[in-house]
Amino acid sequence: MMETKIIVWRSAADDHVLKEAADALKRGELVAFPTETVYGLGADALNPVACKAIYEAKERPGDNPLIVHVDTPSAISTYTDIPNLSLFTHLAHAFMPGPLTVILPKKTVISDEVTAGLGTVAMRCPSNGVAHALLRMAGIPVAAPSANTSGRPSPTTAQHVIDDLFGKIPYIIDGGNCQVGLESTIVLPHESENSVTLLRPGGITVEDLYTVCEKVYLDQALQGRLQSDAQPLAPGMKYRHYAPKSPMTGVVGEDRNVRSFFTQKLKNGFGVLCFDEDVPFLPESDKLITLGGKREYDKQAQDLFACLRRFDVMDVSAIYTRVPEDDSLGLAVKNRLLKACAFTVLAV
After folding, report:
1. 20 to 30 Å CA-CA from 91: which of 11, 199, 206, 317?
2. What is the dihedral sign for C-alpha 212, 235, 71, 182?
3. pLDDT digits (tens, 9 = 90+) for 271-297
4. CATH code for position 323
5. Pair 205, 286 in one domain
């Protein structure tokens, strides 16, 4: 087992404690660090050996590409070609630094280990104070998928990272809870029009994108799993993700039908993830977890992965969950839940 060092950061006054981790990144070592979305597992994006180590530590499929993080939006042009500069400039001005990832043609300096052989690379500029300071100190682009075992719920606290990766990586930076709670929005800009294709919903919503783009197209992978032989265009599109250890099923229908269904499942000892509005109609149970109000999408996003991890310490053989509406940030929460359910949804 590898020795893992925990570095605690609580404010900009603690930036000096990040130097050791920044130096480790430059040496080709792995560092888990918080962003505003989830915790990431970082490595030098220009070092193929270091990037390969990410896949090994996470047990991540080799055809699932990584996101590259830089400290300023202007740095993105160093590693990519930008066919539609006007559109990219507007996206960057509106949403960077922040939870937006853009797919762009890569320059040769970015290795195939980062892109899983694709000719494009996912780029973003995080707004989190720890991430920004770490990237600035390291002075390199950092490839960083979520800092969890592949397929598990993404980590939104340092403890989640410790649960999955302690003893497998040399450094974990504890920077507190993540603000957004879901991975970044991923878009593919179109070369000849002011439009994008949404590959993964996140903290930047479709409604937000429409403030910049004339059209936002939704990729087919948002509603179903890609075929086994399909090449994902961006991270997180193909495989079962975010899943607790027990199998989970989404449940949709009229409130009274869903609540009746949940009541029976709770009486039989199964896990249930519901909205706050459901609780008065359900029996008390230590296997009942609430995700927040039906339209409290910010809270749902912040709490989702922590809720899914709570089921892992329960004695439940199956979990049944509410499915949010798909407007605003609800689309991103729904997307993560559907992936955790392997797109299995029951109408009652």
Report:
1. 11
2. positive
3. 999 999 999 999 999 999 999 999 999
4. 3.40.50.11030
5. no
